[in-house]
Amino acid sequence: MKNKKKAIGFSRVINATKYSMLGFKSAIKYETAFRQELILLIIAYIVVMLINFSIYERILLLGSIGVVMIVELINSAIECVVDRIGYEKHELSGRAKDYGSAAVFLSLILTLILWIYLFACHFFP
């Protein structure tokens, strides 16, 4: 293995930001679910700003969708690693993908519950 010079300080932050942006671009390009969640976030932002929610409610509502997007990125990373290893069926590979999918599903359910609860509290006090 080649001895790579590691970035330190501010250059490390710059490099980390560059790799993060590459990750976002890749997710937008290759991951349909991530694109759908990004559209959902934009629509949710508009809805939340049109309704007179408190700043804390807005943070919770939009943050919950942000959490879904984070979990989706982790799920996509798991799928990429499993697919990199091989496309043949293997019980552990299938379970890893299923666990990632279950995590996304659970984050979506929790987000939906939060949205229903806060909207109900706001409109039916």
Task: Give your account of this protein's structure.
- The structure is a single chain.
- The protein is mainly α.
- Helix content is 83%, strand content 0%.
- The protein has four helices and no strands.
- The chain has helices at 10-30, 32-50, 55-85, 91-123.
Query: What is the count of β-strands?
Result: 0
Number of helical elements? 4
Give the SSE string. HHHH
Rg over CA atoms, rounded to whole Å, is 19 Å
Shape: globular
Strand content: under 5%
Query: What structural class should be given to the helix and strand makeup?
Result: mainly alpha
Q: Low-confidence spans: pLDDT under 50, at least 5 residues?
A: none
The whole-number mean of residue pLDDT values reads: 93
Largest sheet: none
- Distance, first to last CA: 63 Å
Helix content: over 70%
Give a quick set of tags describing it.
125 residues, mainly alpha
Give a brief rundown of this model:
The chain is mainly alpha-helical. The chain contains 4 helices and no strands.
Task: List the topology elements.
Elements: H1 10-30, H2 32-50, H3 55-85, H4 91-123
